[in-house]
From TrEMBL:
<feature type="repeat" description="TPR">
    <location>
        <begin position="476"/>
        <end position="509"/>
    </location>
</feature>
<dbReference type="InterPro" id="IPR019734">
    <property type="entry name" value="TPR_rpt"/>
</dbReference>
<dbReference type="InterPro" id="IPR011990">
    <property type="entry name" value="TPR-like_helical_dom_sf"/>
</dbReference>
<dbReference type="Pfam" id="PF12895">
    <property type="entry name" value="ANAPC3"/>
</dbReference>
<keyword id="KW-0802">TPR repeat</keyword>
<dbReference type="Pfam" id="PF14559">
    <property type="entry name" value="TPR_19"/>
</dbReference>
<protein>
    <submittedName>
        <fullName>Tetratricopeptide repeat protein</fullName>
    </submittedName>
</protein>
Length: 627
C-alpha cells in the first residue's frame, strides 16, 4: 500500500541531511492530508524553513481531497448542527443524503511528487494510498471502543491523525540514525496551516520542553495536535502517541474518566504526560477575543456562505423524505436566518434579502419565520418582528438564538421585563448545539444586563455584565459595563479596576476614561483625575446624546481642588453643550448648588430628568432639588 517518493528521496534513507555547523539543527515534520498545502507553503517557507534552515520530512496520503470531515467543515453555520451525528461524521451516509452538495465540494486529485519537491525540497517523504473507512481497523491494527464512539463520534479520526504524526517522525529518526546526529529542534505541522510568525527566540532557547499554541482548547488536559515543537527526545515521545492509543482507549473503555481525555488534543496530552518527564508549555500570541496574530490558518477547507451552498442544498432537500426532510428544511431556514443577521449588519440590500427568503419559502414550502423576524427588526417593524420570532420559537422552543433575538426585540419595544424573561430563559437552557464551551453565552449575559439596566436593577445588571466579562475577559465593552454598574452602586475602588481594564483592552475607550475620571474624584485621587482630563482634553465624545469634551469631570476636579473660578467656566462650557450624561448629571447639579447657582442647578436637573425619565440613578439624585 505504501510508496516512497522515488524522485524526492530515493529510499527511506536516500537523501542525507546536510551538515550544519554552528547553528541549530531543525527538522520540520509535515504530516497528514495535503489539502490546502499550496496556499500554506509560502508562509511555512518564510517563517519556518528559511529562517531556521530546516530539513523537511513529509508523510501524507495520496488523495488531496479525501478528508472525511471536509463536507462538515464547508457547510454554512449552523446547518451541520442539525444533521444527525451518524450522518454528519460518516462521509458515505452524508453523500447519500446530500448528493448535489457533495458533488459541489468534491476535490479530485493526487499529491504531486514533483510539486512537493519544488516547494519543500524534503529530505524524505512518503505518500500512502488512503485506506477506505471500512478498512481502518485492519490498516491501523486496532478499533475504536464503541463506548468512545458513542461519547464522541469524532474520536474515530484520531487514528489517522496520530498515525501520520508517528510515521513522519520515524522518517526524522531514520535521518538522525543515518547521519549520526540528533536534531536540536523538531516541529510538527499540519500541511494546510499557514504560519504568521517565526518561532520566538525564547522558545528556541528552551527546547527541553514542548511548546504548543493554545487557542480554543483547555491546556489543563489538552495539547494542540496541529502545531507543536521541542527538542528531538521530547518530540519522539509526543509523536509516539499513536502507539499508545490502544492502551489508552482500553483504559477509557474500562474506566470512568471523561472521554475528552481520549480524543485528539486530549489523547495527545494524556499520552505525553504519561510517557514523558518534561514540561509541555502552552503559549498564546493574542487574547482569546482578539484577532489571531499567529495566523495558524487552515487552507484545507473553505466554509461556504448560505448563498454559495443554497442551490445544492435546496436540490438535495427535495429528494429527502419523512421526518428527516422537516429537520433538514428547518436547518436550511436557520442557516438563512444566520445569513440575514450578518447581511443586515453590513447594510446589504433589503430587497435582495427578501428575495432570498421568498425563494426558500417557495422551494421548500416552509415558512422562514426567523429570517422574516430579522428583516422586520431591521425595518423597525417591531410587532411583525415579535410575531415572526414567536412562530419560530414555537418550532424550536429551546433555541437560544431565537430567544436572544426576542430579548432584543422586547428591549427595542420598551418592554424590559419581557427582555429579562427571554434572556434568562436562554441562559438557563443548555447550548442547542451541545458545545462544551458555549462561546456566544456572553452575548446573552450582555442582553440580560441591558434589560436589567433599563429596569434600573443595577445589582442585577452588574451580575449579568460580570458574567459576560468572566466568559470573555478580553472584551473591553464587558469590562466597561461592569465598571459602570459598580460606579452607579457606589463601589468606586472596584469600578476603577474594570474601567482601567477596559482601556488596557481598548486604548481608545474614551467612555471608560470618562467615568474613571469621575471615579477618581469620588475617591479623592485628584492628581490621577487631572491626568486623565488633561490627556483627553481635546477629545470629543458623545455623552447623553450630544457631542461634548471631558468637561464634566474637569469641572468637578477643579472645584474639589478649590479652583472655583475655573470650575465655573468649565461648567458653563458643559451647560452650553446641552449634554446630560446619566453618570455625571447628579454630581454636576450638586456642584452648581455648591457654587450658589441654584437656578442653573434646577435647569440642569430638569434637563437630566427629561433625558433619563426611567433612570433610578438620576431620579434619586435629583428629585430632592426639583421637589
Amino acid at each position: 500500500m505504501k510508496r516512497t517518493l522515488e524522485k524526492v528521496t530515493g529510499t527511506l534513507g536516500g537523501k542525507a541531511a546536510p551538515e550544519k555547523k554552528g547553528k541549530l539543527r531543525v527538522a520540520l515534520c509535515i504530516a497528514g492530508q495535503m489539502r490546502g498545502y499550496e496556499k500554506a507553503a509560502p508562509s511555512v517557507l518564510k517563517n519556518l524553513i528559511e529562517p531556521l534552515d530546516a530539513d523537511v520530512f513529509i508523510h501524507t496520503w495520496s488523495d488531496i481531497g479525501s478528508s472525511i470531515n471536509e463536507h462538515r467543515r464547508t457547510l454554512p453555520v449552523p446547518f451541520p448542527e442539525y444533521i444527525p451525528g451518524k450522518i454528519q461524521h460518516k462521509r458515505p451516509q452524508f453523500d447519500a443524503m446530500f448528493p448535489a452538495y457533495s458533488a459541489s465540494i468534491s476535490e479530485s486529485g493526487k499529491v504531486d511528487c514533483n510539486r512537493l519537491e519544488t516547494l519543500y525540497n524534503p529530505v524524505a517523504a512518503v505518500i500512502e494510498d488512503s485506506p477506505a473507512p471500512e478498512d481502518f481497523d485492519d490498516f491501523f491494527g486496532f478499533s475504536v471502543p464503541e463506548k468512545l464512539l458513542n461519547a464522541e463520534i469524532k474520536s474515530q479520526w484520531s487514528r489517522q491523525l496520530f498515525y501520520k504524526i508517528w510515521k513522519c517522525n520515524e522518517l526524522k529518526k531514520a535521518a538522525e540514525l543515518k547521519g549520526g546526529f540528533t536534531y536540536d529542534l523538531v516541529i510538527r505541522l499540519r500541511p494546510d496551516l499557514s504560519i504568521g510568525n517565526p518561532i520566538p527566540e525564547s522558545h528556541l532557547n528552551d527546547l527541553e520542553k514542548i511548546h504548543f499554541r493554545i487557542r480554543n482548547i483547555d491546556a489543563n488536559f489538552q495539547m494542540s495536535d496541529q502545531y507543536f515543537y521541542g527538542g528531538s527526545p521530547q518530540m519522539d515521545i509526543a509523536c509516539d502517541t499513536f502507539r499508545n492509543i490502544p492502551d489508552l482507549w482500553k483504559e477509557y473503555d474500562q474506566g470512568s474518566r471523561h472521554h475528552k481525555y481520549y480524543c485528539a488534543e486530549g489523547l495527545l496530552c494524556t499520552s505525553v504526560k504519561r510517557s514523558g518527564n518534561f514540561e509541555i508549555a502552552p503559549f498564546r500570541t493574542e487574547k482569546a477575543s482578539e484577532k489571531n496574530t499567529c495566523l495558524l490558518l487552515s487552507h484545507g477547507q473553505k466554509r461556504f456562505s448560505y448563498l454559495e451552498a443554497k442551490d445544492a442544498l435546496l436540490s438535495d432537500i427535495k429528494s429527502i423524505s419523512g421526518a428527516q426532510k422537516d429537520r433538514i428544511t428547518l436547518a436550511l431556514g436557520r442557516t438563512l436566518a444566520a445569513y440575514v443577521v450578518a447581511a443586515t449588519a453590513k447594510n446589504k440590500d433589503a430587497g435582495e434579502l427578501a428575495n432570498l427568503v421568498l425563494e426558500y419559502e417557495t422551494e421548500t414550502g416552509a415558512p422562514a419565520d426567523f429570517a422574516n423576524s430579522i428583516l422586520s427588526f431591521a425595518k423597525e417593524d417591531l410587532e411583525q418582528a415579535r410575531e415572526h420570532a414567536k412562530k419560530a420559537l414555537a418550532q424550536e422552543p429551546n433555541s437560544t438564538a431565537i430567544l436572544t433575538h426576542l430579548a432584543k426585540v422586547a428591549r427595542k419595544q420598551g418592554l424590559p421585563d419581557d427582555a429579562v424573561k427571554f434572556a434568562t430563559r436562554a441562559i438557563e437552557l443548555p447550548d442547542e448545539y451541545k458545545r462544551q464551551n458555549r462561546p456566544s453565552k456572553w452575548v446573552l449575559f450582555d442582553t440580560l444586563g441591558y434589560a436589567q439596566e433599563d429596569l434600573n436593577n443595577y445589582e442585577e445588571a452588574f451580575t449579568a455584565y460580570m458574567a459576560s466579562f468572566s466568559l470573555n475577559p478580553g472584551r473591553a465593552a464587558s469590562a466597561y459595563r461592569t465598571g459602570k454598574m459598580l460606579y452607579r452602586l457606589g463601589k468606586y475602588d472596584q469600578s476603577l479596576w474594570f474601567l482601567r481594564q477596559a482601556q488596557i483592552l481598548d486604548p481608545d475607550h474614551h467612555a471608560a476614561a470618562y467615568i474613571e475620571a469621575h471615579c477618581l474624584c469620588k475617591v479623592g485621587m485628584y492628581l490621577d483625575a487631572q491626568a486623565i482630563t488633561l490627556k483627553f482634553a481635546g477629545t470629543t465624545l458623545e455623552v447623553g446624546g450630544r457631542k461634548t469634551k471631558f468637561l464634566g469631570p474637569l469641572a468637578i476636579l477643579q472645584f474639589k481642588r478649590g479652583i472655583k473660578a475655573a470650575a465655573e467656566k468649565t461648567i458653563d462650557a458643559y451647560l452650553a453643550t446641552g449634554a446630560t450624561h446619566e453618570d455625571e448629571v447628579v454630581e454636576l447639579t450638586k456642584l452648581l448648588v455648591s457654587l450658589n447657582r441654584v437656578s442653573d442647578a434646577k435647569t440642569l436637573a430638569k434637563r437630566g430628568l427629561a433625558a433619563h425619565p426611567n433612570s433610578r440613578f438620576v431620579q434619586r439624585g435629583l428629585d430632592w432639588l426639583i421637589n
